[in-house]
Amino acid sequence: MTLLNASRGMSLATALVLASGVAQAQAPLASWNDGASKQAIVDFVARVSQEGGPDYVHPSERIAVFDNDGTLWSEQPVYVQLAFAMDRVKAMAPEHPEWKDTQPFKAVLENDVAALAASGEKGLMELLAATHAGMSTEEFSAVANQWIRSARHPKTGELYTGMTFQPMLELLQYLRENRFKTFIVSGGGIDFMRPWAYEVYGIPPEQVVGSQIKVSYEVKDGVPTLMREPGIHLNDDKAVKPVGIHYHIGHRPIAAFGNSDGDYQMLEWTTSGPGPRLGMIVHHDDGEREVAYDRGSHIGGLAKGLDDAGAKGWHLISVKDDWSCVFRYACAPGR
Amino acid sequence: MTLLNASRGMSLATALVLASGVAQAQAPLASWNDGASKQAIVDFVARVSQEGGPDYVHPSERIAVFDNDGTLWSEQPVYVQLAFAMDRVKAMAPEHPEWKDTQPFKAVLENDVAALAASGEKGLMELLAATHAGMSTEEFSAVANQWIRSARHPKTGELYTGMTFQPMLELLQYLRENRFKTFIVSGGGIDFMRPWAYEVYGIPPEQVVGSQIKVSYEVKDGVPTLMREPGIHLNDDKAVKPVGIHYHIGHRPIAAFGNSDGDYQMLEWTTSGPGPRLGMIVHHDDGEREVAYDRGSHIGGLAKGLDDAGAKGWHLISVKDDWSCVFRYACAPGR
């Protein structure tokens, strides 16, 4: 892109923001350093927003999808939802004396991370069934919501809702101001994210796609109830992400943002459609302000995406170089 | 409700419509006769929209769900999607000579409705698998879209998109002008409805909930593809409708509109929540302008809903008395 295009793109985008009547406390994308990543975003938005332009996309088709863990908030040192499940086990342990001698619960109660990891996916499923099922959707929502508003990150001591990435919050806002509809498409549990996503991300429950536990409808003692059952309805990760997108959204997004190889197919599906497309990967390369990890990490592992990004035309967002500030709690205190 | 309340409600709703800046070609709900049904709608909308009022509902929670067949468009003499499947069988028959001697295909090719009905749910599933699976989601979307824009209703000779109920289109519009988000929640196939729902109902694909065929993601000859598989992911009818609402929307609607006992649980789930709720059933009692049917009809049967409407506080919409005009093609020619 030439400088001329870039400046035209910028002013068009700015004009649209002003025209939308949304009050701007600060410039859009304020926590993004000038550079290729920020420019790619601004340019893409300008192209699809320019009425009469060759790349114009009607607002009803301006669908942007975001992975959650590692893309919108911290996933280190442990997926937040796993921390939640572990806390639930501890809270529920008095009613389950047998857990003291049964894996994977024993591992959780003894904070034995190695034994927990050794229990594998089967152990994880048992943990989820014990802590995420057997109650109504409304009860679960209340428990998850209460936890996420009070639990604190083990390293920073901050609330998890403050461990969201400020530049990504600004990106969500910027896209919406330019008439994009923003969705979460996560491998995490949909009912864990929904209760607070609107407040923190500005994303309402109906725009959250995620893994889903089975739910059944029954009238219990005269009260209509949706019960959470110990079974998986959708495991929304890897090759299932485009499927989850189809089930929920029903058209192909034009922009996708992820951070791990679990997002590979979502990026691939999004960016292989006709017309303008934007695929971006948050590359966690900042060992000082966050954690540096990619290949070989068993949380948020990124290898194939890193290898193929160039050929696929996906942009790598460098946490170190592209973000002037990382966490919401530090960038925007009081928000 | 007193007359005073009614008139205050009406003027508040009108003020909101004007404030929303949407150009009104005619008064809202123009095809609704004055009466209890129209009044119930206007009153409900006024109550939930009145900021500071006891029944105020934030716009993010103003979720309204609509059944499709028999609620938004005609389902007589046959579900439109079944007509589509039958036409597909006829179009595909040259490639399937064996269908001449195999049920339920034989029945379709010979227009033998009795034999088709005798094949039951198993036959219907075979019909759907043969005509709705084995192609990509984009191929299916194109085929369904092309059909629905050209096929004509057997009795009126009108396009199916003209066989939508004009008063319900006005209701969708009225709710949206009052900052409701409108969803379809149908037992019909989601991918059959999505391609045209935005244009005809103003409902985008991501706000359509319906029955879903299994879909898988694969890269075929280098092209990322979503393939439709012969299996059911969600059978979104009866007690599964509240479940589909949970999976897709993630919060409980405050208003629900249906017409058959297949909508019973959706109405029950919606109207049993706290705060103001609106449940309405389109009662097909007009044998002159449409078809009069309820109890015992095997299309859109309505018995339990009719029996319980009073106790549940659900309003019956009388096609005969409440609608001054029925079908879009006749009420709003040229639209």
UniProtKB/TrEMBL annotation, chains A, B:
The lineage of its organism: Bacteria, Pseudomonadati, Pseudomonadota, Gammaproteobacteria, Lysobacterales. Residues 1-25 form the signal peptide. InterPro entries: HAD-like_SerB (IPR050582), HAD-like_sf (IPR036412), HAD_sf (IPR023214). Keywords: Hydrolase, Magnesium, Metal-binding, Signal. Pfam families: HAD. The keyword Metal-binding applies. The keyword Hydrolase applies. This is Haloacid dehalogenase-like hydrolase. It comes from the Bacteria. GO terms for molecular function: hydrolase activity; metal ion binding.
